[in-house]
Amino acid sequence: MDNFVLEGSAKTPSVDFNAEKGVLELRGRSIPENSIEFYKPLNEWIENYGKSPQPETTVDVRLEYFNTSSSKCILDLFKQLENLNGSGTNIKVNWYFEEDDEDMEEAGEDYQAIINLPFNMIEVEEI
């Protein structure tokens, strides 16, 4: 299976899903004009990945900021991964947030409360 890579921009995060290693990384800002259209190819790719996933899948989220419409798409992404968890792959989420960014820390905690996936909350100096 090919990897899934999207270059980031000022309004969209970079997305790098290495199928061989089972590692998905979201990095940057997520404020696209149309969040659903932006995340749709990733959702479709994950659906295919779910047919033959790696035994361990790691999701590294290193977002500086995301808007409300992106938050719904990210939740949908986590729900999709939650459905895959335990059926051929064990998924864990590493949620990175800057030490002074309470909003991003709380966002990670909110997702952690909603989604039944192991979450590691990781405080860093800079995203």
Q: What does the model show?
A:
- The protein is α/β, with parallel strands linked by helices.
- The protein has a single domain, classed as Transcription Regulator spoIIAA.
- 35% of the residues lie in helices and 33% in strands.
- The chain contains three helices and six strands, in the order βββαβαβαβ.
- The chain has helices spanning 35-49, 68-84, 102-114, and strands at 4-6, 14-18, 23-30, 56-66, 90-98, 119-124.
- It has a six-stranded mixed sheet, with helices on one face.
- Strand 3 (23-30), helix 1 (35-49) and strand 4 form a beta-alpha-beta unit.
- The radius of gyration is 14 Å and the shape is globular.
Descriptive tags:
single chain, 127 residues, Transcription Regulator spoIIAA, 6-stranded mixed β-sheet, 3 helices
Q: What is the CATH homology-level superfamily?
A: STAS domain
- What is the structural class? alpha/beta
CATH level 1 class label: Alpha Beta
Shape: globular
What are the low-pLDDT stretches, counting only 5+ consecutive residues below 50? none
SSE string, helices as H and strands as E: EEEHEHEHE
Distance between the termini: 29 Å
Q: What's the architecture, going by CATH?
A: 2-Layer Sandwich
Strand residues, percent: 25-35%
CATH topology: Transcription Regulator spoIIAA
Number of helices, counting only DSSP H or I runs of 4 residues or more: 3
Total beta-strand segments: 6
Helix content: 25-40%
Read across the widest sheet, the strand sequence of neighbours is: 1-2-3-4-5-6
Topology summary:
Layout lengths: L3 E3 L7 E5 L4 E8 L4 H15 L6 E11 L1 H17 L5 E9 L3 H13 L4 E6 L3
Parallel strand pairs: 3-4, 4-5, 5-6
Antiparallel strand pairs: 1-2, 2-3
Helix pairs in contact: 1-2
